[in-house]
Amino acid sequence: MTVKIAVTGKSGSGKTTITRALQKVLKEKFPDKTILLFDNDLSGELAHTFGKDIRNTIYGIRSGKHEYKTGIPQHMTKQEYIEWALEDIIVPIEENVDIIVSWLSGVKDCRCPITEQLNSALQKLFERYDFVIFDCEFDLKYLMQLVDTNIEQTLIVANPTVESVVLAGRIYEYSAKYAIGGNIGVMINKATDSDMSDIYKLAKDSDMDILGATPYDKNLAEGSLTRDSEIVKDAVKQLYLRLNLPQ
User: Is the dihedral of CA 90, 33, 146, 115 positive or negative?
Assistant: First the structure.
């Protein structure tokens, strides 16, 4: 069974850093399991952290602008073609870890056949992996415009400010109906030693669960293209123990 985890939040909150840390934690815990990183953020930043400038995207397939690495096989149905095209844009990152970039998502109200064909092809693709981690553009609603899929755990990343937690509340509201069993909560990123009682009270008053916090890492603040942080990874490792995920 494929376990799907979504990391959502405002741009600049640290979603990509948390996604990278989560991928490393899963790799350490389950070295033989396969992981698909799904870059659903319009910036494509997740791929850049691996030194990959990925131009071939799911949107490129949808729009007919994708340049294929090989010739297109003959005598395929349109559905087979879409599935083959997705294979063409998957990029290996390391052993048992791949990445695919979506870029723009279509609108579900569109009755174009490719909308349903992509939806079916992506669901089939996910089933090949043990874990799929989505680095989302803002909330789950944007992801669901591309593919209907159940999410086992959703992490909303927020900074330790009232403004950021208020925005997390909006993301929580938009995303909750897509999270299986209500497994959705807020993770405070870039936490310092300052008093966060107001932050926790605001989250509680808004019926949001704060799952944990990751410490501020000054090395990331100074600019790290890879978004690697042992401090954040250790915090995510502790958080993982409290999530409803395979242990």
Answer: positive
